[in-house]
TrEMBL record:
Keyword Hydrolase appears in the UniProt entry: yes
PANTHER family (alphabetical): 1,4-ALPHA-GLUCAN-BRANCHING ENZYME (PTHR43651), MALTO-OLIGOSYLTREHALOSE TREHALOHYDROLASE (PTHR43651:SF11)
Compartment(s) where it occurs, according to its Swiss-Prot or TrEMBL record: Cytoplasm
Region entry Disordered, spans: 47-66
Pathway of action: Glycan biosynthesis; trehalose biosynthesis
Signal sequence segment: none
Protein name: Malto-oligosyltrehalose trehalohydrolase
Length: 569
């Protein structure tokens, strides 16, 4: 087998294969190679005898500090030959974390619950990062070997079994990938070459535009294409792309979109790129022939924030601006709330307007909850711990009746009582204590007592964050689950609800935002967020409701904290 590694500054490189060292030969452009037979391997740079895992490793059976293992993609027997993929427009995304979705926390255990997802009506399963990170438990955003599926989850074969099973159920699979930084433990890339340039808020950032950056960019592009091609994935969610520092004329994101488009044509199935960005810049999801980067969608934190404020009344931090009257209505119409407007949280103007005449709403993912907005709260509390079932129902109705692509976070569909907290499992005691202390100090600045913040290194924190699969059949949870199934079914049944044309969206609100009427063609969604009944002119055939609103000939009386979706013709 030919072992290859990029180490442009090294004067000597060896590869240790199954315990025996072999000298490597310098090839072109800083690459080294050696033809050796074996399975487990690591590289030694210069005269340093410390073996390092392969930056492009496909498998790490013993963790991120140990030897890599040769992996043959052709050996897996796929059964999804008839799979033709799913486009994102018209879809419903379900975000889950493999380690806490089930008690076992493995890819195979997720397979056992796919029937629930298929019955729910979702179309895309979005997996939080499954790349290799130090320790056994974690969110996955501290990954350091991006091409190796986390071994405790089931490794590369386990991930392939999950993707194969999803496709058999008609479910597309999107993987969350992190290219903006590397984790704090096991990030050896800088020993091989000029991979790093500066730091982000979370760790070392990549050199995307400096000397030697061509191969660094290729490292990212090959990783992305490998997930889509070799693991049969249907899309990637790109974490925090605003932290990608790239001053080249052709941004990495545009280059990625171009190569993914070519791969999609070769595979003859749709491949989707979804960005997370706080820049509120339409350029990300504008087609390349119109001067954009050509990504297919991006998360819509603005809609989340507007909904969260409306449902909870929280107005601190980045929620402050969303207390402005009409914030929810504006975001439903225009996707961005901050669009070249003042952001008090940032103390500057922020964002750029979206041309709602031409930009389709399906390019924005709408959600009531997600892993960040739950897990980055001090105690990881879900909305179900804060608001009434009626307000939860109103929030879900707004998301699924919006012109955007709906997304929900695991357990949301039955108002799970389990929190989803921040957790990690770094073996290094000093690093573990630093994370523990940093987390508590961070929330202490926001008024939380240090004893209120769960210890992220305590296995009990992970245990608390696992879904309780006995809940969906229990009173209170069962009704919410039925509502989510109904809303998703209606979204598929009525073209008005998947119509992405933002210039056809109309919203009426009370001066104090206590109620809202969303117009979707011949459908009307009326939500009463207030603690008292309200009469609204939305008479028609009731398609879905919460709170048993009575439909009259000319008006509907909505009880407190309720909604009704009606067809007016």
């Amino acid at each position: 087998m030919m072992f290859r590694v990029w180490a442009p500054s090294a004067e000597r490189v060896r590869v240790r294969v199954d315990g025996t060292d072999h000298e490597m030969t310098a090839a072109d452009d800083g690459w080294w190679q050696a033809d050796v037979t074996g399975t487990d391997y690591a590289f030694l740079l210069g005269d340093d005898d410390r073996p390092l895992p392969d930056p492009r490793s496909q498998r790490q059976p013993d963790g991120v500090h140990e030897a890599s293992r040769v992996y043959d993609h052709s050996a897996f027997e796929w059964t999804d030959q008839s799979w033709t993929g799913r486009q994102l427009p018209g879809g419903v995304v379900y975000e889950l974390h493999v380690g806490t979705f089930t008690e076992a926390g493995t890819f195979d255990a997720v397979i056992d619950r796919l029937g629930h997802l298929a019955d729910l009506g979702v179309t895309h399963v979005e997996l939080l990062p499954v790349n290799s990170f130090d320790g056994t438990a974690g969110w996955g955003y501290d990954g350091v070997l991006w091409g190796a599926a986390h071994e405790p989850y089931g490794g590369p074969d386990g991930l392939k079994r999950l993707v194969d099973a999803c496709h058999a159920r008609g479910l597309a699979v999107v993987l969350d990938v992190v290219y903006n930084h590397l984790g704090p433990s096991g990030a050896y890339l800088d020993r091989f070459g000029p991979y790093f340039a500066g730091r982000t808020d979370w760790g070392a950032g990549l050199n995307l535009d400096g000397p030697g950056s061509d191969e660094v960019r290729r490292y990212v592009l090959d990783n992305a294409l490998g997930w889509l091609r070799d693991f049969h994935l249907d899309g990637l969610r790109l974490d925090a792309v605003h932290a990608l520092v790239d001053k080249r004329a052709v941004h990495l994101l545009e280059e990625l979109a171009t190569e993914v488009e070519a791969l999609s044509a070769a595979l003859n199935r749709p491949l989707t790129l979804i960005a997370e960005s706080d820049q509120n810049d339409p350029k990300l999801v504008t087609a390349r022939d119109a001067g954009g980067y050509g990504l297919h969608a991006q998360w819509s934190d603005d809609l989340h924030h507007a909904l969260h404020v409306r449902l909870t009344g929280e107005t601190t931090g980045y929620y402050t601006d969303f207390a402005e009257p009409g914030a929810l209505a504006r975001t439903l119409r225009e996707a961005f709330f901050h669009a070249g407007t003042w952001s008090s949280f940032r103390s500057r103007t922020h964002g750029r307007p979206l041309d709602r005449r031409v930009a389709p709403g399906h390019r924005f993912l709408a959600y009531l909850q997600d892993h960040d907005q739950i897990g980055n709260r001090a105690t990881g509390d879900r909305l179900s711990a804060t608001v009434s079932p009626g307000l939860l129902a109103c929030g879900a109705a707004v998301v699924f009746c919006s012109p955007f692509t709906p997304m929900l976070f695991m357990g949301e569909e039955w108002a799970a009582e389990t929190p989803w907290q921040f957790f990690a499992s770094f073996p290094d005691p000093e690093l573990a204590e630093a994370v523990r202390t940093g987390r508590r100090r961070e929330f202490a600045r926001h008024g939380w007592g240090e004893t209120d913040v769960p210890d992220p290194m305590d296995p009990a924190t992970v245990a608390r964050s696992r879904l309780d699969w006995s809940e969906p059949g229990k009173p209170g949870h069962r009704e919410i689950l039925g509502l989510y199934r109904t809303l998703i079914r209606l979204r598929r049944s009525y073209p008005e609800l998947t119509d992405p044309r933002l210039d056809r969206v109309a919203v009426e609100t009370a001066p104090d935002d206590s109620w809202l009427i969303l117009h979707r063609g011949g459908l009307r969604l009326a939500c009463n967020f207030a603690a008292k009944p309200v009469e609204l002119p939305v008479a028609g055939e009731v398609l879905a409701s919460w709170g048993n609103p009575e439909v009259g000939a000319a008006a509907t009386v909505l009880p407190a904290e309720s909604f009704v979706l009606v067809a007016t013709r």
